[in-house]
Structures are given as structure tokens and as C-alpha cells.
Amino acid sequence: MMEQKRWENEYPKMPESFHLALKEVVEKNCGLEKSCIKESDVKKDMKQLDTKKEVQVEVQSEVLQTDIIDLLRKREEVPPIVLKKKNRKKLYALGMAAALTLGLAVVGVTATQIFEKKKEEFSFEKYLGFDSRKGMEDLFQTDIKVTIPEEPGDLIDTWGTYDEEEWEEYVYNWKAMQIERENNKPLMEIQEVFFDGMELAIHAKITEEGAQYELGTDTINIEQHLILLEYGERVGEENDMIFRTHIRGIEYEDDLEVVIPLGVYKNGERYENQDYIFEVAQNAKITVLPEQEFIYDNYTIKVSELVKSRTAIMGKVEVLMSDEQKEIYEEENKLMICISKFKNSDGTEWKHINSLETSAYNLLFEPQKQEEYFHKQMPEPDSQSVMMDVLLAMKKSQYEEPMDMYHPDNIWVKDIEISLIEE
Amino acid sequence: MAERKEMDKRAFGELIMANEVQLYRIAKSILKQDEDCEDAAQEAVTKAFEHLETLQNDRYAKTWLIRILINVCYDLAEKRKRQQVFEEEKYRREEQRIDYRDLYEALFLLEGENRLVLVLHYLEGFQVKEISEMLGIPEGTVKSRLYRGREKLKKILTEEE
Asked: Are the C-beta atoms of A396 and A337 separated by less than 8 Å?
């Protein structure tokens, strides 16, 4: 099971040598006759260093104490909802239906948050990144007939790693952990569904009954496939929740059958799930587009796995080189990376949607990696082409500022025109 | 004015020590060897002190320091990777001496980018927005790395169990 406890238990503990190394360099840099850190002034117990709690510091003078406290307090000045989320993660410790080992998507609210906060109207389309629904009204579905069974459905072994006997035991134990709810009143109401053929997003509102609990899930069942949500989250100022994922790779013929296995928690206890079963109409068409290659003197840019919906494109961009080209390139540039940027001919950048983006950071570890998956939203529905820039190397690496991947000094392959028309 | 600077340095020093566990754990998400974590932390702290004047708002002192630390760790990791080519056998032997728990070992089977955001989010409790600011990447990218990292880690751990 996950979670926070497992992280805390299994993550390596800070050794004394690290503390001493840090202390030494801090003292040196303080440049004071008297050390600005005295071991005796630091109230800490090395046995407790594995906890998440920050070490409390006692400082030498009142003035300094005020300063430090102020500094630390400033760090804690985060909105109440953020603090609540931190607490929530601990409550999720019992794990999700098929989440055998890991932490959960951060989804959930409490009654206090819902009813005491100033309410602002939530805009589903804005959340999804659209200025309006113009031209894609049919992609937003409001007539959703939801069934909530008395008993939640069976667990599904996502990874298929248990044999039958082990799985039965697991399910038995898992069910035993759950407390029965007093009633089966809906904990949330599904308001709308957005489906463009690739992306599925569900907007729900927590009911008054649901506000008594913390709600969350990181999985969703679509056409008998249990898949992870990319990220579920409470959104807006009201009691809104969003479940969002992509269904590429799942075969379906007509409407999609969807089940949200909603996890229910309160005061650190796990209650029985509440399942939401509904169908999503297949109003949207996706188009698989042909591979496209752009050949340059020292490399070739290849765009493949290209799929287009009415509102977005997904695909993969690669930089292909011969071994000789690659060797020369790496000598000159140290790092071989690939980041793409999509825009209209007037320069309007296409928004990044999800999950498939890669960036320089992994490539520092994988200098040979020269590909990027992308998922970009079209500024206007059903675009016929898009301009792509590709960053092949990053020359700017700064310490004091975030890495500027888009710095003009970086090398770009500019203005490759990708056709989005089916052959 | 000079007095304020001195106070800032002292305050910053205290802030560093107050967050030493967090600094260690973040460094440890990028560098496996404790000695490297110590080197990186010392270098990052030195750089931070050198540029303390450029810190406009004390509020961001901690995330600013973490950002510097992450960059130093990445540079050191890159250096180690190059050294590893020449000292591969020695390096491997050193690594094998340490018996880490499953979760940490599994973390190192992930791509560095995913590993770091998982540690920042699940272990250190930073929010997506904070991580985004810290790493200088969009919030969507942080979310996607959390998603992919979580998915991969879950698979690795499940297979091990």
C-alpha cells in the first residue's frame, strides 16, 4: 500500500555526514566570527530525521528569531485548500481499488471548503482550455443517465500480476477494510462530459451528502479497461470535481460504457466505494494521419503516430541521425534533446494538453533520447495544418533561474509544416 | 543596509539547516551516492550564498535554494555518468554495497524527471504549482510526470511484490 507512510519508511534516511557537510558550508558562508548555526541551538533528534516534519530551530537572538519565524511562516502561507490537500494525502493511505501500491490522484473536498468559501462559477470549457464551445457544442454532453448500484463493482487487477487465489485473498482483505456507509445517497452528481474521440473529461459536483466525506479515485473503467486517470482534481471555488483521461488504444464501436469507482474516506477511514455507471455518446470522429518526414543535411525529423480529433492532435516527433551524425552532434552540444512547439502560421502557440510531454530534464539522464510525445490543443477546431519548431539542443543551463528551454540561443528547426489532412 | 544583509545571511543559514532533511531527500532522488548528495548540497549552498543578493523576495528562499540544488545535482549526475564510462566496474561495486529498500530502488528504475516530481510531490508535499515554479516547467508537465511516474512505479512495485 502507499502511500505517504511507505515513502517515509522506505526512502533513505539522512545520514549524519550530510548534516555535518551542510553545517560546515553554511557556517563557512555565513562568514561570521561566531557560527550562525550552533549544534546546541538546533533542536533535533537524528532518530526523527526520517519524518516529514521540518526540524525546529531555536536561534540566538530575538531579532533573528523573528526573522526566521517570519521566513518559515512565509513558506507556510499557502491557500487553505492547498493545506487541506496535503492532509488529504495522508488520509488516502488505505489505497484505491486497483491502486495496489501507490498514492492517489488528489481529488476531494470537505464540507468546510465547500460551504464557507466564496463561490465562483466553474467553467468546464475554460478548464479544458477552450475560450468558448463554439463549433464543438456536440462534444459536451449533458444528458448523462447515471446508475449507482447498491454495491460497488468488483475490483479489477490492473496489471494482472496476481494469480486467482492471491487475488481472492487481496479482494477479501480489501473489502474487510471498508466501512459501510449509512446510506447510498449520491455523493456527487455528474454534470457534463466532454469527449472528442481522444480525450474524455467528466465534470461532477459534490452533493451535500458527499461533502461529509473526502472523495477520490485515480482510476476509471472504460469499456472494461481499467485505466489510470491522468489527473483527477477538485477544481474551481465550488464543489466541482474533474476526472480526465485519454482513451487512445481502446477499441469501441458505439457509445462508451464508463464506470467511475469513487473512493470514499473520512477521518482516515475507508468507506465503501460508490460506483457511477454511465454511457458516453460517440459524437466525435478521430482521424489517423500518415507519418511525415522532413529531411535536413544532418538529421531527419519524423512525425508519427499522428492522430487528430476535432480539437486536438496527438503524436510523436523524433530526430533521426546516423551514428556519425549523432557523434558529431553530441560532441558539439553535450546534450541531445528534442522538444517540439506547435503554432499557427501567425505564431499563436498551440496549448499543451496532457501528459505526454517530455522535456530537457529526463534527457539530461538520457542524452540519447531524441523523441517527444505531444498532445496539443488546436486554437480553432479542425485545423488543416500546423507549424512545428523543434529544439534539438539546449545551450543555456543556468543555476539561478529555471532552465530556459525556449531561449533564442538554443538551436531550433523552425517552421516545419505538418499537414493535418487525411490522405 | 549592511546590517540587513548580514541578518539575511544568518536567516538564510538557519533556513537551510531547518530544511536539511528535505534537501537531502531531494538530492537523493537524483544522486544515489550519499557522498554526491553532500557535494551537491555544499555546492548549491555556496552558490546560493554567493547570489543571495539576487533573491528579491525572502518568501521564495526555500524554493530558490531547492532549484539551485536540483540543477547542481543534475550537473553532478551528468558528470558521474561520464565518469562511469571509465570507472564502470568500480562504480557498480560501490552501488551494490548499499541495500536500499524496494521503493527507493524502484524509483531509480524511473526516468529522472518522473522520479524527481514524485519525490517532490509525494514525499515532500509540494503542490503541482510549487513544483512547476521550482523546475520552471508548466503545471501540465508536472501533472503528466506525476501520472507517468506513478503508473510506472506502481507497475514496478507490483511486479516485485
From this structure: no
* ipTM of the modeled complex: 0.83
A110-119 as b/e, with b when 16 or more CB fall inside 10 Å?
beebbeeeee
Q: Is-contact A370 A318, C-beta < 8 A?
A: yes
d(CA B26, CA B31): 9
Among A308, A243, A253, A305, residue whose Cα is nearest residue A282: A253
Chain A interface mutation, best of B35, B109, B158, highest count of A Cβ atoms under 10 Å: B158
List the single residue in B with minimal CA-CA distance to A47.
B21
Cα separation, A107 vs B92, in Å, equals 41
Confidence of residue A210 (pLDDT cuts 50, 70, 90): very high
Higher-scoring residue by pLDDT: A223, A410: A223
Cα A184 to Cα A189: distance, rounded to the nearest angstrom: 13
B109 CB within 8 Å of a chain A CB: no
Query: What confidence tens digit (pLDDT) does each residue in B50-94 have?
Result: 877 766 667 778 888 888 898 888 878 877 765 544 444 444 444
Supply the DSSP symbol for A179.
B
pLDDT at A244 over 50: yes
What is residue B21's three-state secondary structure?
A: helix
pLDDT at B113: 75
H-assigned helices in A372-412 = none
Tell me A398's DSSP state: -
- A155: closest CA of chain B, how far (Å): 16
Three-state DSSP state, A203: strand
Strands A225-228 and A140-141: unpaired
Q: Where are the alpha helices (DSSP H) in A257-303?
A: none
Q: From the DSSP assignment, how many helices (H) and strands (E) are in chain B?
A: 9, 0
d(CA A157, CA A166): 11
- From A49, which residue of chain B is nearest by alpha-carbon distance? B21
A129: three-class secondary structure by DSSP: coil
Quick one: pLDDT at residue A350?
Answer: 87
Cα A154 to chain centroid, rounded: 26
- Cell digits of residue B8: 539575511
DSSP notation for A49-87: TTSSSPPEE--SSHHHHHHHHHHHHHHH---HHHHHHHH
What are phi and psi for residue A185, nearest 5 degrees?
Answer: -60, 145
SS3 content of chain A, % helix, strand, coil (to 5): 25, 30, 45
Identify all chain B residues contacting A71, using CB atoms and an 8 Å cutoff.
11, 14-15, 58, 61
Q: How far apart are CA A96 and CA A270, in angstroms?
A: 9
Neighbours of A281 (CB within 10 A): 15
Question: Closest by alpha carbon to A242, among A221, A274, A215?
Answer: A215
Per-residue pLDDT tens over the stretch A295-344 = 988 888 999 989 998 889 988 888 888 888 877 776 766 555 666 788 89
